[in-house]
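Tokens as discussed.
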């Protein structure tokens, strides 16, 4: 039985759509701040918040600037965001999400990439066989990491597999992905390089010439972003307009009561009459062929 449940408000594919989270006691929590980074396990197993299910196009994300950080669909220039289908891929090619209690500090320059962070929790590409749902909390083991440089910001992409995947026992490091899923890493590199091209942007670039770093390197990156998150939650780092309200980090000055959290959700706008792009279906996007 999951320790967490989700509460959906608003219509899917609308600006008002939100996925809020509750703990096992039924109290509202922040998926960014209140879900532990590590799962209760003897191994190095991490909690992952699934934002985007595999094969879908809607760009869902943890709302880092809203109280209690529900998942919402990103909006740019007044329109809901969708990633294009880039042949032969349909939408996101993994279950895509983030590790809670991590933060890529935009004022901290990474010593390995020489670029600052992108101001978000660290991203995860889960490569297991199951298609997850938006808002699922799953336990993953980390296999490696890719360093995307997005508009001069470090945007780490962890490669992971759910511990309950039927083939999880075959995966221990990034080399196992090459053995067990040939060309998957190459497809991942292509996807991240090209996915913004249909929007008129240039191809993305990578640190380390696009080399996937191994598990040990990835774990160091996670630890570094976890330390940045701790500094954020204790006012030792400037988070700008990041919303740090939480319920369970009791030594944080941003910690609120369960009742206050309930009031936050109740007072949040749940209007559904303004449904931007509601007729746009994820399954009807145009395929984009990228000339190389």
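Sequence:
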């Amino acid at each position: 039985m999951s320790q967490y449940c989700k509460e959906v408000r608003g219509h899917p594919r609308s600006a008002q759509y939100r996925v809020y989270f509750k703990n096992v006691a039924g109290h509202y929590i922040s998926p960014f701040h209140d879900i532990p980074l590590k799962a209760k396990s003897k191994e190095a197993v991490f909690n992952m918040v699934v934002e985007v299910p595999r094969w879908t196009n809607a760009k869902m994300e943890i709302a880092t600037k809203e109280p209690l950080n529900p998942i919402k669909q990103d909006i740019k220039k007044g329109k809901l965001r969708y990633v294009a289908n880039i042949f032969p891929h349909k939408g996101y090619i993994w279950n895509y999400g983030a590790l809670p209690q991590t933060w890529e500090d935009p004022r901290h320059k990474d010593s390995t990439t020489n670029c600052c962070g992108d101001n978000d929790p660290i991203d995860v590409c889960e490569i297991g066989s199951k298609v997850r749902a938006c808002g699922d909390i799953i336990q993953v083991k980390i296999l490696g990491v890719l360093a995307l440089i997005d508009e001069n910001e470090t945007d780490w992409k962890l490669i992971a597999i759910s511990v309950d995947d039927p083939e999880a026992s075959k995966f221990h490091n990034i080399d196992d992905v090459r053995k067990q899923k040939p060309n998957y890493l190459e497809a991942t590199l292509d996807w991240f390089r090209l996915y913004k091209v249909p929007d008129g942007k240039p191809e993305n670039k990578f640190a380390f010439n696009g080399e996937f770093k191994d598990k040990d390197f990835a774990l160091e990156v996670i630890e570094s972003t976890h330390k940045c998150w701790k500094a954020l939650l204790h006012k030792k780092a400037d988070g700008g307009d990041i919303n740090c309200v939480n319920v369970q980090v009791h030594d944080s000055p941003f910690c609120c009561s369960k009742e206050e959290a309930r009031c936050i959700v109740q007072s949040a706008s749940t209007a559904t009459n303004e449904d931007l792009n509601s007729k746009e279906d994820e399954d009807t996007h145009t395929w984009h062929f990228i000339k190389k």
